[in-house]
Amino acid sequence: MQTRPHCTADCTGNKSNGDRLTKIAFVWHLIKEAHKRGIEETRKYRKKHGTANCPVKYITADGYRLGEWQSRIKQRRKKRKLSPKTIKELETLGFEWGKRQESRLKD
Fold first, then answer.
1. Quick check: 70 and 54 in contact, CB under 8 A?
2. How far apart are CA 47 and CA 49, in angstroms?
């Protein structure tokens, strides 16, 4: 499968189209935006509920599946595919990984 290289415009070299897309809030980096959203929703959840960890089935009022996002984040950490920056960011919010996972990751 071929993928296109990263583009700063619209991948045709037409910067004006890229500028127009940026002005209407086109998301160029979907994975980064999804990460930011998960962190922000975790922050809001903590403020409202006093803990950063939510139930797996928790869905925000606007339909964001925060519980599923947090579950995927835990799985990525378990597989050692989560950056130290993200781990620190979540731990700063008081996010807890779970006792079983903590003991295995210390080995």
1. yes
2. 6
- Enter the tokens of residue 70: 């947090």
- What does pLDDT average to over the chain? 79
Residue with tokens 């050692």: 80
pTM of the full structure: 0.67
In contact, 7 and 26? CB cutoff 8 Å: no
Residue 37 contacts residue 46 (beta carbons within 8 Å): no
71 within 8 A of 90, measured Cβ to Cβ: no
Distance CA 88, CA 62 (A): 27
Q: Label each residue of the chain as H, E or C.
A: CCCCCCCCCCCCCCHHHHHHHHHCCCCCCHHHHHHHHHHHHHHHHHHHHCCCCCCCCCCCCCCCCHHHHHHHHHHHHHCCCCCHHHHHHHHHCCCCCCHHHHHHHCC
